[in-house]
Amino acid sequence: MLSRLRDNIVTIIETVDLIHTFGDGTKALKKVNLTFKEGEFTVITGANGSGKTTLLKHFNGLLFPASGKVLVCGRSVAEKPMSARQNVGMVFQDADSQIVGETVYDDVAFGPENLRLDRSEIDRRVGLALGDVDLSGFEEKSPHNLSGGEKRRLAIAGVLAMNPRVLVMDEPFSNLDFAATRMVLKQVLKLHQNGHTIIITTHDLEKVLFHAERLVVMDKGEVVDDGRPATVIENIGRYGVRPPCSVLFERGLQPWEI
What are the C-alpha distances in Å from 163 to residues 56, 111, 169, 216? Predict the structure, then answer.
């Protein structure tokens, strides 16, 4: 799997000395330099307030740098935000915040309709996106009557209907039970196998780390480690992130002893 990290793979997202400052003067990101290759499956972790979500919002122009730059497909996000949003689709932690339609069909169709596509193309994209997340047959259901896991998958479908090259997900397993977590993870892995670049933020590594090719650790707005998960996980506890149970079992330790 790590063959995807070869130098000849196309760079799809790059941050160069990225700094973001909140209105009160707090530096949320401090000279972040990261490169994401096309087809990678990356997990970004860190304690609450480490800058994970703030970083993601720069990838599709929801936020812009105070200094430094973010490039998507070689183009500056600050200069070409619409291009970034076409290439990078983001699924937020709160799936309800992304629901805009009265029916599942309407919700997924919202993005393509705003692209002014013809109805046949919209129908095609909606059908494909719902099929990708196992929600075919849900078209006429109300999104607000779906389960938490189904809402998360609907949010993914809404992003997929825009045909992005990169799928960015902020804490995708938050507030989901075991069954819903398995279903969402299944869809994410399917999308990765089909060629999508996947970037996930989470502080709960247990559910997804086994499938990742790369682990990035953030602490107080900085990247403090970056590499193969098996290597990076060795020091994860010092940054306020609980190691997966497998690591604890191997060492015979309690979580507070890492």
Answer: 18, 10, 15, 26
Q: Tell me the pLDDT tens digit for each residue of 238-249.
A: 888 877 765 544
Distance CA 199, CA 161 (A): 18
Measure the CA–CA gap between 128 and 159, rounded to whole angstroms.
12
How confident is the model over 19-73, as pLDDT tens digits? 999 988 889 999 999 999 999 999 999 998 999 999 999 999 999 999 999 999 9
- Domains of the chain listed by start with CATH number: 2-257 (3.40.50.300)
User: pTM score, two decimals?
Assistant: 0.87
**147 φ, ψ (degrees, to nearest 5):** -75, 170
Rounded to whole angstroms, the Cα distance separating 164 from 46 reads 26
Residues in the chain: 258
Closest CA to 42 of 188, 167, 199, 195: 199
37 burial level (CB within 10 Å; 0-12, 13-18, 19+): buried
